[in-house]
């Protein structure tokens, strides 16, 4: 018997097909026709910051803009989405973002869930303490102290596993929350990448309040997080990153965003390919 479609059934089929397409290109991949969604931090001055006027600023933001442009998306075609440390893998896996540029270190654990283009920046874990506190100068000092870091970060992981397993570690959702704790003396130190800590220490409202310990407790290679197995996108982003270094943009952006904090950056890392 031959099945005959009624006009209503045919229309329903078209709607279904259209819905499936919309899901495929939209919610499933972080891009939707002429727009792309990119994950960044919203509370890290110098890297990814949402300013009071609703714009976004920082090294990661500008790296993301450069890469998006090379992929064919002008600045006004980018939707910015907050990507807290603990959410990054999920945002990528769920297709909520096309890529993440958010002080996102490449490591083995994360590589099981996502892929990375890059690295495009190298930094090191350090400590931020109150300017008048001379009791913390080395990592062992933390074992009798209250320490703050962020859930889902390599910084918190490193403290628990090797740096100071006896420290009273509080894990919060974002580094800006740790900073408030440090200011209010609810914690004695904040630990994460020196690139991030320098940004906080140099903010106008914090000047003179905090200091970096100047320790290099790890190597953090920032990569651009993408969906696992998307080798085409990885290739395109790596090409964009190489161009960004060779045309001088990387140097310019590093000076622009880390110059004000006085952060002494490492040279541009070699892209893994
Ligand atoms: N780079 C480290 C990480 O990816 C710490 C900074 C952050 O949490 O974004 O975990």
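Q: What amino acid sequence fits the structure above?
A:
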């Amino acid at each position: 018997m031959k099945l005959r479609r009624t006009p209503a059934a045919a229309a329903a089929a078209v709607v279904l097909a259209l819905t499936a397409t919309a899901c495929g290109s939209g919610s499933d991949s972080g891009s939707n026709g002429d727009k792309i969604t990119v994950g960044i931090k919203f509370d890290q001055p110098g890297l990814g910051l949402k300013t009071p006027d609703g714009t976004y600023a920082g090294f990661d933001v500008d790296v993301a803009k450069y890469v998006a442009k090379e992929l064919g998306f002008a600045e006004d075609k980018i939707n910015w989405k907050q990507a807290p440390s603990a959410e990054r893998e999920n945002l990528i896996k769920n297709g909520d973002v096309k890529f993440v540029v958010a002080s996102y270190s490449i490591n083995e654990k994360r590589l099981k869930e996502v892929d990375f283009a890059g690295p495009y920046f190298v930094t090191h874990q350090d400590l931020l303490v109150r300017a008048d506190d001379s009791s913390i100068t080395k990592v062992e000092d933390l074992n009798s102290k209250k320490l703050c870091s962020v859930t889902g970060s390599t910084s918190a992981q490193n403290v628990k596993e090797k740096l100071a397993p006896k420290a009273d570690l509080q894990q919060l959702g974002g580094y800006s929350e740790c900073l408030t704790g440090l200011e209010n003396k609810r914690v004695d130190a904040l630990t994460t990448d020196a690139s991030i800590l320098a940004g906080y220490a140099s903010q106008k409202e914090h000047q003179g309040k905090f200091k970096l310990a100047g320790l290099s407790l790890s190597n953090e290679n920032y990569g651009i997080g993408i969906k696992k197995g998307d080798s085409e996108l990885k290739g395109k982003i790596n090409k964009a990153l190489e161009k960004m270094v060779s045309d001088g943009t990387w140097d310019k952006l590093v000076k622009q965003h880390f110059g004000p904090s006085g952060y002494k950056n490492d040279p541009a890392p070699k892209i893994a390919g």
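Q: And what stands out in the fold?
A: Residues 125-212 form a domain with the D-Maltodextrin-Binding Protein; domain 2 fold (CATH 3.40.190.10).
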